[in-house]
């Protein structure tokens, strides 16, 4: 439903490309993995802030299918960080009412990693305060191709509605607000299908620097925009009235 430019309602679904961890570390003469560790702290803060502000769904880009091309030591460090974060963060997220979904290709991940993802999803399955989708080994083109293959396998027609229902994020509405940190202004193969009508917000802050005030700035920008979904401003105003 279209909202007026002055709405005080927060975006229901926020998606974030958490960019800039490596650059944050490099600026401090630290190994890139140190930046990713600090990025986990920033994510913890962001999850709490979103829940406190009434956001219903938070989807973050943790590891893309293209990230395998990074230096082997960084990829290995990211995998170890993920395993450690699961063990450390899941009990806290569960206590805070957060439901976890891990979205992405699991083939190629270690058995220990996959078991950790499954366990985290099962442990938090009853929660409803906030849905946290962590896109890990994910790519938007992979998502679309996988959905199309699923329809072909089921013998279903390739309609927009069927594709939408076959996508990896079919369990949540499309993002309302798409945030990218780190000063870059591109989608980088993240939620290509789902972001068709998302409001885009680009922050110059590196992800470890992205705090509650930066989130509030993005939400305020969202609330100041007119979402038309193909309609005219007059139609939106009439609908709101």
Q: Could you walk me through the main structural features you see in this protein, from its secondary elements to its overall organization?
A:
By secondary structure, the chain is an alpha/beta fold. It has eight helices and six strands. It has helices at 21-27, 32-52, 72-95, 111-123, 140-154, 160-166, 212-223, 233-240; strands at 13-17, 57-64, 98-103, 130-138, 177-180, 199-202. The protein has a six-stranded parallel beta sheet, with helices on both faces. Strand 3 (98-103), helix 4 and strand 4 (130-138) form a beta-alpha-beta unit. It is globular and about 55 Å long.
Brief summary:
This protein has 8 helices and 6 strands. It is an enzyme of class 2 (transferase).
Write the layout of secondary structure elements.
Blueprint: E1 13-17, H1 21-27, H2 32-52, E2 57-64, H3 72-95, E3 98-103, H4 111-123, E4 130-138, H5 140-154, H6 160-166, E5 177-180, E6 199-202, H7 212-223, H8 233-240
Parallel strand pairs: 1-2, 1-5, 2-4, 3-4, 5-6
Give the strand order of the largest sheet, numbering strands 1, 2, ... along the chain.
3-4-2-1-5-6
Residues in helix, %: 40-55%
Q: Give the integer mean of the pLDDT values.
A: 90
> How many strand segments?
6
Shape: globular
Class from helix and strand fractions: alpha/beta
Percent of residues in β-strands: 5-15%
| Main pleated sheet | 6 strands, parallel
Radius of gyration: 18 Å
SSE order: EHHEHEHEHHEEHH
Number of helices: 8
Low-confidence stretches: none
User: What is the rounded distance between the termini?
Assistant: 13 Å
């Amino acid at each position: 439903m279209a909202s007026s430019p002055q709405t005080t309602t927060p975006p229901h679904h926020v998606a974030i490309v958490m960019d800039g961890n490596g650059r944050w570390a490099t600026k401090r003469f630290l190994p890139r993995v140190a930046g990713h560790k600090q990025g986990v702290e920033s994510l913890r803060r962001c999850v709490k802030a979103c829940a406190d502000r009434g956001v219903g769904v938070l989807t973050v880009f943790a590891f893309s299918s293209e990230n395998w091309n990074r230096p082997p030591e960084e990829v290995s460090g990211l995998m170890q960080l993920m395993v450690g974060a699961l063990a450390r963060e899941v009990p806290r997220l569960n206590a805070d009412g957060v439901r976890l979904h891990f979205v992405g290709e699991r083939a190629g991940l270690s058995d220990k990693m996959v078991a950790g993802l499954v366990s985290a999803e099962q442990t938090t399955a009853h929660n409803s305060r906030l849905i946290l989708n962590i896109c890990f080994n994910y790519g938007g083109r992979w998502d679309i191709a996988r959905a199309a293959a699923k329809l072909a396998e089921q013998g279903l027609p390739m309609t927009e509605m069927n594709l939408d229902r076959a996508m990896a994020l079919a369990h949540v509405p499309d993002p309302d607000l798409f945030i990218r940190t780190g000063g870059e202004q591109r989608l980088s193969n993240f939620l290509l299908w789902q972001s068709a009508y998302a409001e885009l917000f680009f922050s110059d802050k590196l992800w470890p620097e992205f705090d509650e005030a930066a989130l509030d700035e993005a939400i305020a920008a969202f609330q100041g925009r007119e979402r038309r979904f193909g309609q005219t401003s007059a139609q939106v105003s009439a609908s709101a009235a």
